[in-house]
Amino acid sequence: MYNINIKIKLLNEKCLPKYSTTQSCCMDCFANINEDVKISPNETKLIPLGFKLELPRGFYVDISPRSGLAYKNNITLENAVGKVDSDFRDEVCAIVHNEAPTDFVVTPTMKICQMMVKEYPKVNLVVVEDIAKTNVEHKGFGSTGN
């Protein structure tokens, strides 16, 4: 494990992402809204998170649902895990979806999602005539069990 510095521009000082515990891998993110936002059943709303990032080249951010909101309220993110690329400079947002049969209300500065900074390799795709065979090649999806 190592530390890196990432530049963040706060649009709302109450929305600084933060780790909840010393061993958290994700930082909690907060709703940058001025008034309550109601999300009806099966509805999706874009919730701004109150900051912009300047990520170093070779890094990106995953925006993920919070397990507590998912378990207790059936609140998730529409795109499952959002990605923030290193060249994106606008306000980071979450695409929040209500899977519950009742309305859900997002309140100002509510913990709404979480983010994890990740490093990635840049790959070069090499076009070839054939690839190596394995014992899984014709079994397809679910071939290793449920």
Describe the protein's architecture and organization.
The chain is mainly beta and 146 residues long. It has a single domain, classed as Deoxyuridine triphosphatase (dUTPase) (Deoxyuridine 5'-Triphosphate Nucleotidohydrolase, Chain A), CATH 2.70.40.10. It has one helix and twelve strands, in the order E-E-E-E-E-E-E-H-E-E-E-E-E. The strands form four sheets. Strands 2-3-12-7-9 form a five-stranded antiparallel beta sheet, with no helix packed on it. A three-stranded antiparallel beta sheet has the order 5-10-8. Strands 1-6 form a two-stranded antiparallel ribbon. A hairpin with a 7-residue loop joins strand 2 and strand 3. The longest helix is centred in the middle third of the chain and has 7 residues. It is globular.
Topology:
Blueprint: E1 7-10, E2 18-19, E3 27-30, E4 37-39, E5 44-48, E6 51-54, E7 59-64, H1 67-73, E8 75-77, E9 82-84, E10 93-98, E11 104-106, E12 111-119
Antiparallel strand pairs: 1-6, 2-3, 3-12, 4-11, 5-10, 7-9, 7-12, 8-10
Question: Would you kindly provide a brief summary of this structure?
Answer:
The chain has a single domain, classed as Deoxyuridine 5'-Triphosphate Nucleotidohydrolase, Chain A (Distorted Sandwich). Helix content is 5%, strand content 36%. The protein has one helix and twelve strands; from the N terminus they run E-E-E-E-E-E-E-H-E-E-E-E-E.
Q: What labels would you give this structure?
A:
5-stranded antiparallel sheet, 12 strands, 146 residues, mainly beta, 1 helix, 3-stranded antiparallel sheet, 5% helix, Deoxyuridine 5'-Triphosphate Nucleotidohydrolase, Chain A
